[in-house]
Amino acid sequence: MEKPKQSDAVARKPSRWLVLLIIVAPPLLWAGNFIIGRAIRDWVPPVTLTLARWSIALLCILPFALKHLRHDARYYLSHLPLMILLSVSGVMAFSLCVYFGLHYTSGTNGLLLNSCIPALIMLLGRLFYGQMLQMRQLAGMLVSFVGVLAIIFKGEPAGLLALSFSVGDLLLLAAMSSFACYSLWLRKVPAEINRTGLLAVQILITVIATFPLWIIEHTAAAAAVWNGFTLAAVVFLGIFPSLIAYLFFSRCVDMFGPARAGLIIHLIPVFGVLLSMLFLSESLHLYQVAGITAILAGIGFASVKRGITR
């Protein structure tokens, strides 16, 4: 009787190529989100972009999620506060802070600041969920924090002393904090809730919550400029960084836990800085190199051996 069970387990185990795809796809697609968000910032206002992106994502996911929505409806209602927290933190607030932030800082800075998410996951996990941290992890987070400061203050100590900072960098840092909370809360979702249906619920809540903000923006700000380029950009954002990346990241959290899954965020700058240089003609500055090096070194130092726990 044991052999069939073992064979079934082996059959259900994902292949190495699938695991690699699950790990690589989210940071690659999220890097594209930053590049496109920066590229169309002058044509599509932030709230309009957020609403359009997630409305497209909702239309795309509904045909696949309807049966799961009906089946898991009782779970959504019994975990409604968690559903709202996930939607507001990881979808709505993250998107809005990123798109507003990209109006005031470079796409490269946004990509580099993503690398503080794993440190934030560890820190918030310790503060609010009692996850144990070793001295190695604390030291690593301190080094990473120095790297974040180097990016925010553009390598100028005088900026730190005078509290001279970019509003865009702070908005992006708020977005990263929001996503760190999302990663931790995602682990609280019961395993029996289908992840496709879960994402559809998050998107639906996001669209409903964003709509009143869009009305305010539409009446107070310039209207979006729709053309072939902006339409294609929003459709791309609605399908790839919104649906595919979030589904894969949710699977990654299930497989490895929020702290280890958060480490894939480090691939975003690798993909994104190259894309920024290629498509946005942005330069890579020494303070950015120093900052990302410190962030990666700190996370690497904090993550070795038993440094990260589920």
Strand and helix map with partners:
Elements: H1 2-12, H2 16-39, H3 46-71, H4 73-78, H5 80-101, H6 107-113, H7 117-129, H8 135-152, H9 157-161, H10 167-186, H11 195-220, H12 228-256, H13 258-262, H14 267-279, H15 286-303
Task: Give a short synopsis of this structure.
The protein is built from 15 helices and no strands. It has helices at residues 2-12, 16-39, 46-71, 73-78, 80-101, 107-113, 117-129, 135-152, 157-161, 167-186, 195-220, 228-256, 258-262, 267-279, 286-303. The radius of gyration is 20 Å and the shape is globular.
List keywords for this structure.
310 residues, mainly alpha, 15 helices, 0% strand
What is the structural class? mainly alpha
Radius of gyration: 20 Å
Number of helices: 15
Instruction: Give the percentage of residues in beta strands.
Output: under 5%
Biggest β-sheet strands, sense, barrel:
none
What share of the residues lie within helices? over 70%
Query: If you average the pLDDT, what whole number results?
Result: 81
Distance between the termini: 32 Å
Low-confidence stretches: 1-11, 306-310
Shape: globular
| Number of discrete domains | 1
Helix and strand element order: HHHHHHHHHHHHHHH
Number of beta-strand segments: 0
Transmembrane segments: 17-37, 43-66, 78-102, 108-129, 138-155, 161-185, 197-216, 228-249, 261-280, 286-304
Pfam families: EamA
Keywords: Cell membrane, Membrane, Transmembrane, Transmembrane helix
Domain EamA: 19-152, 168-302
